[in-house]
Each structure stands twice: as structure tokens, then as C-alpha cells.
Design a protein that fits this description.
Number of strands: 13
Oligomer: single chain
Strand content: 15-25%
Order of helices and strands: EHEHEHEHEHEHEHEHEEHEHEEHHH
Strand order of the largest sheet: 9-8-7-11-12-13
Helix content: 25-40%
Radius of gyration: 22 Å
Length: 404
């Protein structure tokens, strides 16, 4: 049996990337693969909440959060040997790495294990930081071993280097979905009736301030009506966000991320605001969804009516309105107009079977100069190098290495 090894950004929490890994793991198992996952605990050191990752609790290696060039050979070999020790006996290994630093570890591992290594970058704002990293990514693209979550991410990734990379060729849809069920959710049961129920689906993102501000504008325009704002996937608002929603006619509720999404959330909310996988899940659950633009932090439009996209600007449909104007339209002016979607929502239907074909292609020679990428090149970098190699990983700030 073959083994598929994930080097994930994090298997903690309930992020879109963790959900993707969980879903693909399930599919691979059903199609005859052993599956193993490792992470570097992510930038927030989130605890595991998705049950499928519990067997990999011991595979959370903090050092994997940092580039391999930050470690001496002895330390690097210890980390690699720790990973190898957790792999089952098999007749072939495919490695998938999901962020730029894991891509470096994946390439090193592939040379040790004689394994195929595919880089699938799950970030929405990926950038190439040096010529050496560009050479590495270009080499992987030329061998069909690097993909991003959307053609526009591929284009922006290589934009600085004026590369002729075919963006449409090097993207996979993360095919995220999460189980929605009619489960009990006490936090939803205590919500008081209101004239308007607005849902926010997903964790805090750069566009959250814009969403909160526009909900406040809408609520002020309708000060005689009550407004509930239900945040699903948010543990805490910032002080400024809380202050913005501190209006006499507004109540807001915070509900933590859940591995199974309560159907009642979609039934309760008159409209849901979200992005990427969350927008798609809400749309598939039958909700009216305002999807948000990953790059501009502005609304793309009403999904299925004025846009066909969940993350990036549509090629065909341009809504262009402010979020509070869309809320007015959906909740008050044209409620009956938005009962049946009229625009197909674009989705890559190729799925995991398409991705598996790339995994089964003949492996290419590992890139030779991985250890030249993200090398410590300053006094602070040298201090980090020393701290990491003498075992003080816990003292290290992760800010420099956070992949947005």
C-alpha cells in the first residue's frame, strides 16, 4: 500500500486548510492509501479539534514551523528521522506540503525517502521572496509539482518575476466542505428574535473590520428594527469591532469553530457573509451568501445572483456595491427576488481523483539548493539560528515566519 504524507501548516483548530487536509485524507483512505500528517503547530499553536487528526498528536513538530536552513545538519537529520520513524511500511510515498516552509522540508524529505513531492500552497496571498525561491518554484512547476488554490494566486505568486507560468494549469480547488447536521448548539438556542439576522461565517480575517463597519451602517439606517449578528467561527472580537457594534438595536453572538456545523445556523440567518470554503458551504446549505474579496476586502456580490466567485474578482460579473447596500437589497428592497440562484457558482469539478493523477506521475529529481532558501542573513537571524539549534524553540517568535 502507498503512503500519502501531508506536511500541513496546521492540523489544529478548524481552519480551511485543516478541513482540506481532513477531507482529502478521508478520500485517500477510501482509495487505498495509508495517510500520515505532520505539522509545525501553526502560528497560533491551536489544539487539535478535528477528530481525524487525533492519531497524529505526536506528529506536531514545532521545528517544522521554521525553514530547514535554520538548523545545523545534526538537528535537521534528527527532525527528518523523527518523521521517517512514524511512517508505515509501504511500497511508495507521496509527500504533499501546504505552505512555503513545509515545501522546503518536503523537498528534503523526498530526497531521503526517494519520494514524490508535490507543493500545494493553500494560502491566498502567497509571494516569492527571493530569486532562489523563484528558481525552486519554477522547477517544481515545470515538473507539475506545484499548485495553488486559484489561478489568480498562481499569477500573483510569479508576478514579480514576469514569469510565463500558465496560471490555469497550476491550480487545484481545495474542494473544501464540512459536515452540516441538525445537531444541538446551545449558543444558537439562546439567540433572541430580531427583525434581521446577519451571519458571519469563518474566522477573523482582514475583511472583518469592513464587514463590521458596514453592518453598523445598515443597523443605524434601521435604528427602529433589531439586528442580530451571529459570528460562527469567531472566539473574540477586537475592542474596536465590539465598539462598532455597540448599538442599541444590535446584539451580536460569538460561536466557536465546530467540526460539525449546526444546520440551525443557516436556517436562522437571513443572509451570511463569508469567503472561500465558508461561502461555498453556506451557499450549498441553501443560504443567501455575500462573498468577500480576498485581495480587496470588499464584497464580490451576492453569490449565485451578482457573482459566481467565492474569493477573487469574477471575470464576468462585477457587483461593485458597498456591503451595506447589498444588505439593504437582500434584506429589505428585493427579498423575494433572491429565492433561486440564477448564476452558476464556479467550481473545479475535477476533485481529488484529478489530484491523485499528479501524485502517481513519475517523480523528478529533488531540487538541489533547498538549503539556500530562507537562510539566516542578519544578526537577528543568527540569534534565531543559535536558539533553535540549542533547543529553545519555545522562545522563538513566529511572527517572521507566519504565512498569511
Amino acid at each position: 500500500m502507498k503512503t500519502y504524507l501531508f506536511l500541513a501548516h496546521t492540523i489544529g483548530g478548524l481552519t480551511g486548510s485543516a478541513t482540506y487536509v481532513r477531507n482529502k485524507m478521508d478520500w485517500l483512505r477510501d482509495h487505498g492509501w495509508n495517510v500520515v500528517a505532520f505539522d509545525g503547530t501553526g502560528d497560533k499553536n491551536s489544539q487539535i479539534v478535528i477528530e481525524a487528526f487525533l492519531p497524529f498528536e505526536q506528529n506536531r513538530i514545532k521545528e517544522l514551523f521554521y525553514p530547514p536552513s535554520m538548523f545545523c545538519k545534526l538537528k535537521r537529520d534528527c527532525i527528518i528521522n523523527r518523521i521517517i520513524s512514524q511512517l508505515p511500511e509501504c511500497n511508495g510515498i507521496v509527500i504533499e506540503s501546504n505552505n512555503p516552509i513545509m515545501a522546503l522540508w518536503g523537498e528534503l524529505l523526498s530526497s531521503v525517502l526517494d519520494a514524490k513531492h508535490i507543493i500545494y500552497l493553500l494560502g491566498e496571498h502567497e509571494v516569492i521572496s527571493s530569486e532562489k525561491q523563484y528558481d525552486f518554484y519554477k522547477y517544481k512547476c515545470q515538473n507539475d509539482e506545484l499548485f495553488c488554490i486559484a489561478p489568480k494566486v498562481v499569477s500573483s505568486l510569479f508576478e514579480k518575476f514576469n514569469s510565463n507560468i500558465e496560471a490555469d494549469r497550476y491550480y487545484w480547488d481545495a474542494s473544501n466542505s464540512a459536515p452540516v447536521d441538525n445537531i444541538v448548539c446551545p449558543e444558537l438556542d439562546i439567540i433572541e428574535p430580531a427583525h434581521y439576522n446577519i451571519g458571519y461565517f469563518g474566522r477573523i480575517k482582514p475583511y472583518t473590520d469592513e464587514v463590521v463597519r458596514n453592518i453598523a451602517v445598515f443597523s443605524k439606517h434601521h435604528s427602529q428594527q433589531t439586528v442580530n449578528v451571529v459570528f460562527l467561527g469567531v472566539d473574540e472580537l477586537t475592542s474596536s469591532q465590539s465598539a462598532t457594534l455597540n448599538l442599541s438595536n444590535v446584539n451580536y453572538y460569538l460561536i466557536k469553530s465546530q467540526s460539525i456545523i449546526p444546520q440551525k445556523f443557516f436556517q436562522l440567518c437571513d443572509v451570511i457573509i463569508g469567503n472561500a470554503a465558508c461561502a461555498r458551504i453556506a451557499f450549498q446549505a441553501g443560504s443567501k451568501v455575500i462573498s468577500m474579496n480576498t485581495k480587496t476586502n470588499r464584497p464580490l456580490g451576492l453569490l449565485g445572483y451578482t457573482t459566481d466567485q467565492i474569493s477573487f474578482e469574477s471575470e464576468r460579473y462585477k457587483d461593485g456595491r458597498e456591503l451595506n447596500t447589498i444588505l439593504e437589497d437582500v434584506l429589505i428592497a428585493n427579498v423575494s427576488r433572491y429565492e433561486h440562484p440564477i448564476i452558476p457558482v464556479l467550481k473545479d469539478e475535477r476533485g481529488y481523483s484529478w489530484q491523485e493523477k499528479y501524485a502517481e506521475k513519475k517523480r523528478t529529481e529533488p531540487y538541489k539548493n533547498v538549503l539556500q532558501i530562507m537562510r539566516p542573513n542578519s544578526y537577528r537571524g543568527l540569534i534565531r539560528y543559535i536558539l533553535l539549534n540549542i533547543g529553545f524553540v519555545g522562545l522563538m517568535s513566529k511572527k517572521r515566519y507566519i504565512m498569511k
